[in-house]
Write a structure and sequence with these properties.
The complex is a heterotrimer of chains A (about 325), B (about 300) and C (about 260).
Chain A: H1 6-18, E1 28-34, H2 39-54, E2 63-69, H3 74-87, E3 91-95, H4 97-106, E4 112-117, E5 136-140, H5 145-155, E6 161-166, H6 171-186, E7 190-195, H7 202-207, E8 215-217, H8 222-226, H9 228-238, E9 242-244, H10 247-252, E10 256-260, H11 262-277, E11 288-289, E12 293-297, H12 299-304, H13 311-316, E13 319-320
Parallel strand pairs in A: 1-2, 1-3, 3-4, 4-5, 5-11, 6-7, 6-8, 8-9, 9-10, 12-13
Antiparallel strand pairs in A: 10-12
Helix pairs in contact in A: 2-11, 3-4
Chain B: H1 3-29, H2 37-53, H3 58-81, H4 87-106, E1 110-112, H5 119-123, H6 130-152, H7 156-166, H8 168-173, H9 178-203, E2 206-208, H10 215-229, H11 235-257, H12 269-294
Antiparallel strand pairs in B: 1-2
Chain C: E1 2-11, E2 19-29, E3 34-39, H1 45-53, E4 60-65, E5 68-69, H2 75-78, E6 82-85, H3 89-92, H4 99-107, H5 121-132, H6 151-164, E7 169-173, H7 181-198, E8 201-205, H8 209-214, E9 218-223, E10 226-232, H9 233-237, H10 241-252, H11 259-263
Parallel strand pairs in C: 3-8, 3-9, 6-7, 7-8
Antiparallel strand pairs in C: 1-2, 1-4, 4-5, 9-10
Helix pairs in contact in C: 4-6, 6-7
Membrane topology (chain B): Multi-pass membrane protein
Protein name (chain B): ABC-type transporter, integral membrane subunit
Keywords (chain B): Cell membrane, Membrane, Transmembrane, Transmembrane helix
């Protein structure tokens, strides 16, 4: 049998790993992971870090802070989960459903705080919205859909058919679609879906809705958010009003959004982590919904998409984008 | 690196070694570039997860997932053999189709398995922590799979499959129905990948529509790294090589995750992994060069 | 026995590169006969041989092996009754497999391949014994990859493989063409011995008029997809290469203009 050449390789890799420094005993350590890098998810992470700093925990001084992105790969997310659990941090923050699931599956003891997960109960992270009595709690970005549809009615008062472009492969979006299917008939409206499995499909999905819908509503679907400009183009060309769920999209061309500021969501998450660092058990902390919602409007976009916004709506907005 | 991280790498490496064995059969033995695995890996996960979450016995669920993988491989083979579609293209078609099939099976993009009974909770001994027991169970599964493959490819039928990949024209002249052999080989290959998907879902918290992306790359990397560590054409050593390659590859990723102290950041993970794998491929060449210079 | 009746094969019909390779090709080879087939380039020799083996399908006509109509059967179904040695030894063996594995493949030709071990202990002794008759020392290299052997050695093993199972017919497709004269001679002698020992019905396509007359009992010459000369017995024994040429000119009314055929 030919000689194995993994011996020098193994030695090299082990040496690298062994050289990693050991954490100090008094330091608190927080390990953060997200499934992918993305403006909203990055804002959450920054918010967590800011909240920790405000409570006196600063990286480099009394806090060991580490962040790993799974680069969109579930196998990598699993290995990150293992690594974090092995490092025995005081808390793990898992941003987005796939990362949260990987971490929760990897440990029943290390405190886990999830963030930006739309439906943590359906994702089996927690059994219900009460304190879980397990090692898991967190902050959800679930939007109250009835308020979302109120906004849609305010922007397009006679809307009957609501179109939605979304990635059928993204758990958060599928949850919203299912809820809208139940909700809209009660409001006398119908839902028309258009699937965009990849961000390049957003444009054609939007075009398939032309003539079939009175307004297009979107949630914080990763594909849609990353390709929002192509949605705006269709909205302007075909005069279909666009209502989004995140405030950044209003700057990019949506008429209005009653959205969660993801930086605020991150800070809310961070405050939960602080409670755990101070000794509270995650199982005693109730999972939270986002507390701060902001209304952004864009009258210029409204005009381009064939809609006139009421003055009352514009006055009530937190920010009016020119 | 913590023991947890190390055992995590071994655990995931063992799961992907089943993928590597499957890719070895299609890619090396049959000379069939098979992208179906990007679809049959999540197919196995989906079938297993949905069955377990609706109350089915995990043994049956895992078996069903393996069978589903086999069917996917059969279909790819059928597209190629019967409809005469080029092998790579046939596998891409299946991969694309399986995306929708998997969404249907799961009823959504994701089926979580957090507190459900899995193969691993059933086999969990009292005295050993779960992060040690899981790699042990997987080790037994991988050993059984490897030994079964080694035996099969030394049988008449197994040799016929190898001949089909090595020289189909000659194989036919020896009375081998090469079309049937391609179907059989593809079925076995994707059955292994489906099994891997089922085991992944049971150990990593569920199945997700995106879990298949890049499976072929991981499989090929494992095969290639394995072959550079343990070069041999003999089946017994070749199968060992791809298993070792899969574990070493995941180990490199774990090492890359732990290299933040040299100033590398999260975004650099893929780059670091690529560098480590390149080192793995180059070291045998260097050894040969140094060896011949001394002589 | 091998039987071909009125075979027609046209490649790329209806295009500028249309080639009518076989135009009514008929040949009957009774059991146990050794026939050599010659013809210039494009005469249809290889096409004819591939039609019999099943690698190429015929447009019209009938092919029968041992009385069984195999016109529509695929290669692997015919393989039980007819074995073949390719011109290119690479094409005739599996490079990645060992010598004993290659022989096992040939040994199982015509049987239902199941889950028994492919290379069996008892048969290994037989392979060794057969290989030793070649005098090349290969009997000690059973577990070497066949890709390590030279072309001539592989060709010799291919011949052995062709005779392992009692398939009653043998097709040889210019199987000495790519070898140097000494190796070609060795392979040819081996061929004659094997055919005689196993009483195989044999059809040997060759590019060399010399070879065609030196081995076998009957020589058939093809031209433009048809049989134009068919000599055997007494008449053939008296012939030499120039005589063959004269016969050709008489039949076709034209001179044969293929240098390789004349000089080979």
């Amino acid at each position: 049998m030919k000689s194995l050449s993994w011996a020098p390789l193994g030695a090299f890799a082990l040496a690298m790993a062994a050289l990693a420094p050991v954490a100090h005993a008094q330091q608190k350590s927080v390990a953060v992971t997200a499934i992918v890098e993305h403006p909203a998810l990055d804002s959450v992470r920054d918010g967590v870090q800011a909240a920790l700093k405000e409570a006196g925990y600063e990286s480099g001084k009394n806090l060991k802070w580490q962040y790993q992105s799974a680069q969109g790969n579930t196998g990598t997310a699993a290995q990150i989960a293992r690594k974090f659990v092995g490092d025995k941090p005081d808390a793990i923050v898992a941003i987005a459903t796939p990362s949260a699931q990987a971490v929760v599956a990897a440990t029943k003891t290390v405190p886990v705080v999830f963030s930006a997960v739309t439906d943590p109960v359906a994702a089996k992270l927690v059994p219900n919205w009460e304190p879980s009595k397990t090692n898991v709690t967190g902050v959800s970005d679930l939007l109250a859909l009835d308020k979302q549809m109120d906004l849609v009615k305010q922007v397009v008062p006679n809307a009957k058919r609501v179109g939605m472009v979304y990635n059928p492969g993204e758990a958060n979006s599928v949850v919203v679609v299912k809820e809208l299917e139940k909700l809209l008939p009660k409001l006398g409206m119908t839902l028309v879906e258009a699937a965009a499995p990849r961000s390049v499909d957003v444009s054609s999905a939007a075009r398939s809705l032309i003539g079939k819908v009175d307004v297009i509503y979107t949630n914080t679907d990763n594909n849609v958010v990353s390709a929002y400009e192509s949605l705006v183009k269709v909205g302007q060309d075909a005069k279909i009003p666009l209502v989004a769920s995140d405030t950044d999209s209003v700057k990019r061309g949506a008429i209005a959004a009653l959205g969660i500021n993801y930086r605020d969501l991150g800070e809310q998450t961070g405050r939960m982590v602080v409670r755990i660092l101070k000794g509270e058990k995650p199982g005693d902390i109730r999972p939270e919904l986002s507390t701060k919602m902001e209304l952004f409007v864009n009258p210029g976009a409204a005009e381009k998409q064939g809609v006139k916004l009421s003055d009352a709506l514009i006055k009530s907005a937190a920010q009016v984008v020119q | 690196m913590s023991l947890f991280s190390l055992l995590g790498a071994v655990e995931i490496g063992l799961i992907f070694s089943l993928v590597a064995l499957g890719v070895y059969i299609s890619f090396r033995l049959l000379r069939f570039p098979d992208l179906t695995v990007d679809g049959s890996f999540p197919l196995g996960g989906a079938v297993c997860a949905i069955l377990i979450s609706t109350g089915t016995n995990p043994w049956l669920a895992t078996l069903a997932a393996t069978a589903a993988g086999a069917v996917a491989g059969l279909l790819t083979g059928w597209l190629n053999v019967r409809l005469k579609i080029m092998d790579l293209l046939a596998s891409i078609l299946m991969m694309i189709a399986l995306y929708s099939v998997n969404l249907r099976i799961m009823g959504g993009p994701n089926v979580p398995l957090i507190n459900d009974t899995t193969l691993f909770t059933l086999l969990q001994p009292e005295s050993i922590p779960d992060y040690v027991a899981r790699p042990m169970v997987l080790f037994v599964i991988v050993v059984l799979a490897k030994v079964a493959l080694d035996w099969f490819f030394a049988t008449e039928r197994g040799l016929a499959i190898r001949a089909t990949g090595s020289n189909a024209r000659m194989a036919r002249a020896q009375g081998i129905n090469t079309g049937a052999m391609v179907l059989l080989g593809m079925a076995i290959s994707n059955a292994l990948v489906g099994l891997a998907g089922a085991l992944f879902a049971q150990t990593q918290g569920g199945s997700d529509i995106s879990m298949g992306i890049g499976t072929i790359v991981i499989g090929l990397a494992a095969v290639i790294v394995g072959e550079s560590i343990l070069p041999s054409r003999r089946i017994v050593y070749a199968t060992l090589a791809v298993v070792v390659g899969a574990i070493v590859y995941r180990f490199f990723i774990a090492a890359a995750l732990n290299s933040d102290f040299i100033g590398l950041k999260a975004q650099d993970l893929n780059l670091v992994t690529a560098v480590l794998v390149t080192v793995a491929l180059v070291i045998p060449q260097l050894k040969r060069k140094l060896g011949s210079r001394k002589a | 026995m091998l039987s071909a009746q009125d075979l027609f094969i046209t490649f790329n019909p209806g295009t500028p590169i249309e080639t009518r390779a076989l135009r009514g090709m008929s040949l009957e080879i009774p059991a146990g006969q050794f026939v050599t087939v010659i013809g210039s380039n494009g005469a249809g020799k290889s096409t004819f041989l591939n039609a019999i083996s099943g690698d190429i399908g015929v447009d019209t006509g009938r092919i029968a092996i041992d009385g069984l109509d195999v016109t529509r059967s695929p290669v692997w179904e015919r393989a039980e009754r007819v074995s073949r040695v390719f011109q290119d030894p690479m094409a005739g063996t599996c490079e990645d497999l060992t010598i004993e594995e290659n022989m096992a493949l040939a040994q199982q030709r015509g049987t239902r391949r199941g889950l028994r071990g492919a290379v069996k202990q008892a048969e290994r002794a037989m392979y060794r014994e057969r290989l030793s008759t070649l005098g090349l020392g290969l009997e000690n290299r059973l577990t070497d990859r066949i890709g390590l052997l030279s072309g001539g050695q592989r060709q010799a093993v291919s011949l052995l493989m062709a005779a392992l199972q009692p398939s009653r017919s043998l097709l040889l497709d210019e199987h000495t063409a790519a070898r140097d004269p000494r190796t070609a001679d060795f392979v040819l002698q081996l061929t004659a011995r094997i055919v005689q020992e196993n009483k195989l019905t044999t059809m040997m396509v060759t590019h060399s008029m010399r070879q065609a007359l030196d081995v076998g009992e009957r020589t058939v010459m093809l031209h433009q997809g048809q049989v134009v000369l068919d000599v055997s017995g007494e008449e053939r024994a008296r012939l030499d290469v120039p005589d063959l040429l004269k016969m050709f000119e008489k039949v076709r009314g034209e001179k044969l203009a293929d240098d390789a055929l004349l000089l080979g």
